[in-house]
Amino acid sequence: MNLLQITVVGAGVMGKGLAYNCAVSGHEVFLNDKNEEILAKAKKEIEKLLEVSFQKSFITEETFESAKNSIKFESELNIAAKDANLVIEAVLENMDLKISIFKQLDRICNPETILATNTSTMSPTEIGAQTSRPDKVVAMHFFNPVHKMKLVEVVRGLETSDETVEFAKEVSASLKKEAVEVNEFPGFVTSRMNCLIGNEAMNMLMEGVASAKDIDKAMKLGLNHPMGPLELADLVGLDTRLRNMEYLYQTLGEKYRPCPLLVKYVKAGRLGKKSGSGFYKYN
After folding, report:
1. Quick one: pLDDT band at residue 1, thresholds 50, 70, 90?
2. CA distance 26 to 206
3. Measured between alpha carbons, how far is 138 from 183 in angstroms, rounded to an integer?
4. Is the separation of the CB atoms in 123 and 93 below 8 Å?
5. Do 12 and 114 belong to one domain?
6. Is 29 helix (H, G, I), strand (E, B) or coil?
7. Model-level pTM?
8. Which residues are annotated as a binding site?
9. For the 3-hydroxyacyl-CoA dehydrogenase C-terminal domain, which residue ranges apply (predicted)?
């Protein structure tokens, strides 16, 4: 496909990963976050990842130089998104926040701009209904770390057009990802399964069935999972996992009730790798 101008809204873990992936794939990228400190941190970490990727020959010198020049860091959303072909929102899993951003994007962007949410659980139908272009709103659920993970769930809302779905699939292919098309339902495919597995692992840890290390080891060696469910929860962020579980509990019922241990850890500020401790401790 033709190279695009892509705006990523939110410079957290997923946002900076998306910006890097889009840039090394040849697209022009704006990374937006209203928090200047978070934006500066993202810039530093993206530049470091580019340097390491070049040194290890994961990307060529030409790609390295091109990607460095193609990412712009911008705190003003109206500047970052006004000329975008595609906007990917990658903020917290909070519906009110997402709707607020999409309402702004609907006013700022050209009428033909596709608006995507990177949500792992929430409704693109509900988000799209708050805009004047629900046919151009879609969920594109990427996975962490974005540059390594090969899957994108392309989630069709009630009003999402066939053209928008095909566009999302083409963009995914341009980023060297495999896309699966999903009809909207809370949690899509992967989050519904992953949250159940992770929540049961937390319940087993709470009940004293096995240690966190041994639960994860059993899943990796016995069921061939590349990462244990507790390791993965720490990587995603326990606060993010709790928000996902609360949404699925609200929409799908009792089997998604968050484990009390997860609630306790989040209240204690043990949020996983990003805070230095979760189910494991990190330097």
Report:
1. low
2. 46
3. 11
4. no
5. yes
6. strand
7. 0.84
8. 10-15, 33, 93, 98, 120, 144, 274
9. 187-282
CA distance 117 to 263: 26
Range of the domain at 235: 189-274
Closest CA to 241 of 255, 262, 270: 262
Q: Is residue 95 part of a domain?
A: yes
Domain-ending residue, one of 148, 183, 218: 183
The amino acid that residue 212 corresponds to is A
Distance CA 148, CA 142 (A): 10
Q: Which residues are annotated as a binding site for NAD(+)?
A: 10-15, 33, 93, 98, 120, 144, 274
Residues 175 and 82 reside in one and the same domain: yes
Confidence of residue 121 (pLDDT cuts 50, 70, 90): confident
Angle, in degrees to the nearest 10, between helices 229-236 and 212-222: 110
101 to each of 69, 217, 234, how far by Cα in Å? 27, 40, 27
Residue whose C-alpha is closest to residue 238's, from 178, 210, 278, 208: 278
CATH code of the domain covering residue 199: 1.10.1040.10
Same domain, 17 and 149: yes
Residue 281 lies in a domain: no
- How does pLDDT run across 182-196, given as a tens digit for each residue? 998 888 899 899 999
Number of domains in the chain: 2
Q: At what angle do helices 212-222 and 190-207 cross, to 10 degrees?
A: 140
Could you tell me if residue 128 is inside a domain?
yes
Residue 280 lies in a domain: no
